[in-house]
Specification:
- The protein has 142 residues and is α+β, with helices and mostly antiparallel strands.
- Strand 6 and strand 7 form a beta hairpin.
């Protein structure tokens, strides 16, 4: 398999708290997202925090999907990393829609080709639900 990878770092806001509160529900959605994108699932590990919150990883042959939920803030932190020809945006879009995210931000990082880089015309472009592109605000991004 090719080492070239695409890594999405995603913040999902205004999610349905019922869907992100329990490990069983979030695990099912993460597995569905991986399968929806054509991934080959190898292992699934999820942990339920008390009183709320979930962390989990779906290990796939093509790399992984990971999630951390904060139901009290209606927020989900999501990573989708794939290598080869698999498109990580398929899984990310599936989860964004299923979790009812009212807004989201997504950064795509290209990995494994010898130069770690953010895929965009600008140094960093955040994709938002309204497809607005914004300039980075942190001097520590590069």
């Amino acid at each position: 398999m090719d080492t070239l990878g695409r890594h999405l770092i995603v913040d999902l806001w205004e999610c349905n708290p019922d869907l992100i509160s329990t490990s069983e529900t979030l695990k099912q959605l993460m597995v569905e997202a991986a399968l929806h994108s054509g991934a080959d699932i190898r292992e699934v590990i999820f942990h339920q925090f008390e009183p709320v919150g979930v962390s989990g990883v779906v290990v796939i042959s093509e790399s992984h999907l990971s999630v951390h939920s904060f139901p009290e803030h209606r927020y989900v932190s999501l990573d989708v990393y794939t290598c080869g020809g698999m498109n990580p945006h398929v899984s990310m879009s599936f989860l964004k829609d299923r979790l009812g995210a009212g807004r989201y931000e997504c950064i795509e990082v290209i990995r494994g080709d010898g130069t770690l880089r953010v895929e965009s015309e600008q140094p960093v472009v955040l994709e938002r639900l309204d497809h607005e592109h914004v300039e980075p605000t942190s001097p520590y991004l590069f």
